[in-house]
User: Fold this.
Amino acid sequence: MYWSKFFIPTLKEDPIGTEAVSHRLLLRAGLVHMLTSGVYSYLPLGLKVLRRIERIIREEMEAVGARELFLPCLHPLELWKKTGRDQVLADVMIKFQDGRGRSMCLGPTHEEVITDLVKDFVKSYRQLPVVLYQIQTKFRDELRTRFGIVRACEFIMKDAYSFDRDKEGLKKNYQLMFEAYKKIFARCGLDTLILEADSGAMGGDVSHEFMVPASIGEDHVLLCPSCGFHSGLHGPKEEDGLCPQCRKATLTKQVAIELGHIFQLGTKYSLAQEAYFLDEDGQKKPMIMGCYGIGVSRVIAAIIEKSHDEKGIIWPRQVTPFDIEILPLHASGQDEEIVTLASRYHDELTQAGFDVLVDDREDTPGRKFNDADLIGIPLRVIIGRKNLVNGKVEIKNRQTQEVILVDKHEVIKTLSSFL
RNA sequence: CGGAGCGUAGCGCAGUUGGCUUAGCGCACUUGAAUGGGGUUCAAGAGGUCGUGAGUUCAAUUCUCACCGCUCCGACCA
Assistant:
């Protein structure tokens, strides 16, 4: 891919009103664009990151037997009245009347919709368990949006739902999701803290949150600097309380971003919406449900919060929009060898399975270097006269800043060895 | 939803004690030239309902009011 054809509108200056590093870099690196408060467009580069994360999520969901589907975001309010959540979530629900006078809402979550769907098809214990997921836009009327895409009115969520015949089945699926979540966040290059949590408006009894400590966020965790013990604010009440595990240090309050939340819902929805099945013994029973959410757009923000420097983003390998960026430093098409070499590397590296971006803009080296640091592609190939006179090309690691000079014929081989 | 601040070109900002005749600056953009390893330089351009509406006034981008929008703090939040 060539920069001139990809649409990467980078910003030289920090946009006003961007407190969070991730918010600032998302805008500056041309990943997202704000339409209005809490509503963002994903530009090609940002969408590419989103797709990489989604791919990881899909692989791990499929690996635990969850099947993807796609639910509507337009919901009849009638459905929500069955569970009473039209009241519980009244503050965040975006409601309106359509042209036919129907009361509708934009889905803030999908328990009601999935339950309505599953109950129509699943009638027997023989059909259970059923585990379904989607990656979908959610709508919440947030009065106070914060930190760019961290707390937005419209955002992307992966939500999965399990339906089992009994509690044992639920626990098994819950455990599978629990492990899948650990893998997903690890593959995204994130260290998560897992906390037992409140079920809140979702209902049910067991629930876990997956948090990433960051300099910004809307949640807090209590951390022990000595043994690593951590807890939500529901555990030890005192912020400065002695660590209940090692008793060597006092707990400190740490701001964190909540990326995932899983719930053992039980029968809350199946009872309210009459999602029953006939069990082996001929008895009509409510399905036992679980639900499992990941704030996909929020994952992007968390990754940037955790992986950047003063110059820009540093993408972890698994989620980077491109694997390699090639910088031909040439005077507007005047240096044929450099231009040719850049396109040859592009073709051969693409052939070798890399996702490659060539900064083919007719711009000064300074701007190309700065933009390259900003968008944070892990590996950079710099082709310039300076080294080419000795038959050399420079390869630079974005994270370590490490630079190696390689023979211009060895570039593909050297980069392939990094894969 | 309470408190505070802000709204002038794509972005970041000056400015107007109400009139100064054609509202500026930096970056970005267009054209030309030079440069070509860390946001290079020079020249010439293009780009504006001064957030919206009403009021006061001979005259409003400037004053007053209302509304809209954005940001921050708080409340809220799976």
Remarks:
- The mean pLDDT of chain A is 92.
- The two ends of chain A are 19 Å apart (CA to CA).
- DSSP finds 13 helices and 23 strands in chain A.
